[in-house]
Amino acid sequence: MIGRIAGRIDYRATDHVLIDVRGVGYLVYCSERTLSSMPGVGEHVALYTDLLVREDILQLFGFTTLVEKEWHRLLMSVQGVGAKASLAILGALGPDGVGRAIALGDWNSVTAAKGIGAKTGQRVVNELKDKAPSVMAMGAAPAPVLDDAEDEVIERAPRVAAPVPAGVPNRGAQAEALSALTNLGYSPGEAASAVARAAGEAQDAATPELIRLSLKLLAPKG
Question: What Pfam families would the database entry show (predicted)?
Answer without folding.
Answer: HHH_5, RuvA_C, RuvA_N
